[in-house]
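Continuing from the previous page of notes. For each protein in this section, the sequence appears first, followed by its structure tokens. Read the first protein now.
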Amino acid sequence: MELSIKIKAILIIVVILGVSFGIFGVFYVLNLSRGISVGALSGDLHHLPLFIALEKDFHEEEGLDLDFEDILWFQNGNEEMGAFETRSLDVGYLGLAPAMAHKLNQLAPIKIVSGVNVNGSAIVVKSSSGINNISDLVGKNIGVPSLNNMQDFVLQIALANQNISITDINRTVLSVGNMENMLNTDEVDGFIAWEPFNAKAVDNIGAQILAESGEIWFNHPCCVIASSMNYLNTNPGDIKKIINAHIRALEYLSEPSNHDEVISISKKYTGITKNSTIELALSNIGYVYNYTEFMPQIETFYDNLTNLNSNIDSWSAGKKAFMEEFFDDTFISA
């Protein structure tokens, strides 16, 4: 009888282990079949290097199975960060502002592995508005994508340079896709957005660029490539392939002989039909991968983000520790 009980116990253990292994095997196979998920912002010309890499099959040539159908398109960076936080996104092209804010507030499980661009935003007004300089913005209603994000900080810097307080204007949070129409119907007096939405307003409704963001804050950080920490730890080779494809796209973008094709690719991914709109937008964007060259600007943004937002706390271990936790330059320096 005692032996029988032992045998039964052993059989139960074997069954439990077998079932557990079976479930693990199913999840393992599902994980293998899922492939990499990559996010980007819809119609955002800052993400042109991704568009080029997809069109020229640079990912495939680097040994990574990734094409247009694999990209998850988001309306804004906060939405994309939500996907990272629900573990449904592996890699993403997005703005530094939402990435940093979510890292500080929600301990988002990401690291920044590459830069994408600097500059690339602008303050836009109607040509007939009578607004000819930054000082003329006093008392006006200005559309911003979000309060205290990168574009809003650029606006604040522009005002501060003229000894104007942010409280001297009214800010309205708008989707960048709605800003042109709101300006055209006089529901706002101006707006600040990323490209190509500024260039579109110039070409479509005859708006005027009051100031480009790079003129206000030279080489300010903007978009980056982020990776989930889980994917980074388990698939570092894939991250390297993505960065290699990104760098190849930047090289392709900078080659004058590729200019016409770059314009065509830009039009395809943004839905813009006019070459002049693309040309104007591209003239305002600096494409990069080595974000370490712009660390002073990135640290300035960290200071602004944590000092001006009562709902975003500084990293408990300090700014230096945060930068070490938030960034990983392994793949751009290897």
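Done with the first. The second protein uses the same format. Note its length before scrolling.
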Amino acid sequence: MRVLVCGASGGIGSACVAALTAAGHQVHAVDRDGIDITAPGGAEKAVAQAVDALRGLDGVVHAVGRSGRRLGDGPVSACTDEAWREVQRVNLDSVFWLLRAVLPVLRGKDGGGSIVVVGSALARTLDRDFLTTAYLTSKSAVETLVRAAAYEGAPDGVRVNVVAPGLVDTPMAARALTDPAIAARLPELMPLGGGHASAPDTVAAAVAWLLSPAAGQVTGAVLPADGGWSLR
């Protein structure tokens, strides 16, 4: 399988690159230091570069994301304009731009293809310690966008899905991972993880499965890989 991974230097993105490469897939990895898909025109460049480098494309992973806390993300009454705009650009606009760029490529080839977007359990759950309006709204909108893309792509064999992790041990989660109050709540928040954040490679394994033929009848779905976060 020939796979484009966007956000390849992040915690989850790099784990996806490692997992897919280890499984024998050809991977074209991009990040904002090379091609920034969170800017207009970046997604088109990334897709064109991947098609050229891999001589075609079978799968795509969107693992780009950011928190807006440092910009003032928080409850609705406190969320800043800057946080709202920046988080939507990175977490939502980039998904739209990538889907728009890659759908015609995958729909135009025999056998279709598979697209996986890394979402978040926060798209469907609210919690007092994670009440970041811009972030959770962006991830909720991504789920609807993915369903629209899945509906469009299905007749041509293109599958589009979301993997929704809970708290993952990555640099982006550093604030939560070092907060004693949140650490004390992890057994409640993620009971399957035994009170620990998920390792990035567990999320990558879910991504790899959705890309694979084993998930050939799965599209428009949200796969929780959250240690039980969404059970509350």
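What the second structure shows: The chain has one domain: 2-172+200-223. The domain at 2-172+200-223 is CATH 3.40.50.720 (Rossmann fold). We return to this in next week's lecture.
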